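Example record for the data management plan.
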Amino acid sequence: METGAVDEASIDSLTDFYLGCGVDGMTILGIMGEANKLTGEEARAVASRILKRVDGRVPVVVGVSSPGLDNLSSLARFAMDEGAAGVMVAPTPGPAVEDRVRGYFHQVCEALGPDVPICLQDYPQTTGVPISVETILTLTRDCPQIVMLKHEDAPGLRKVSAVRNRSGTSETPRLSILCGNGGLYLPQELARGADGAMTGFAYPEMLVEVVATHQAGDVERAEDVFDAYLPILRYEQQPGYGLAVRKAVLKHRGAIACAATRAPGPRLDATDEAELMRLIARTEDKVKELSHGS
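Corresponding structural encoding:
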């Protein structure tokens, strides 16, 4: 809302919007949005509302990263009790020392217990903590709870190849790889063995179609669909500013009622709005042309 209050009605409509676009899973309270601006009570209320709205139709992963292990564990247990399929955890900021990262995730797994599936979020551009392929594979072997990699390292295509080629062996369990960064590199990540996308974009139907078409073997069609959305996808990924863009597009599409970000946050001016509306119109025209040509 314009006041900064949590808009419960828009939480419901946004959840319905993503489900209506055909997603087969959701991640909430992640890094791309405004989860870091919520109080602990608000985070629980938002998670509970979305999980109840989804009502088991698709699996929901809840981001629970926190500087404190007690806070992380508390939110994770709450999310699982409310029906989450698993939780997402990023390393805590600090020295980029492999032993420290491994030790931290061992602590997380011990605190959460063996029954909580964990998605390891690898996003060094935000956390400041790079995670090597060796550490990812070691944690996959040592911690059975870690079943998914949220890949957001960039450049990171070689990392996708390495994790895919070296997991799912007699030594290392297969690790599901879902990719973020707004989907900027999605076709290439899929070609290197990623299982799909796990990211925010105001046109989630593009991500759904690209993944499904690529997995069906029509790589050229998948890239054509991706290319039609690329200008607005790129525009939405501007650091610091992209959140306001995404919310403006979601409002334009009827998914939410208000595009305001919680303070302090970016806001579009009249020139920004006009620029974005032109991009939306061009994107929708390209998508229509692509559909007519299929």
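Summary line stored alongside the record: The chain has a mean pLDDT of 95.
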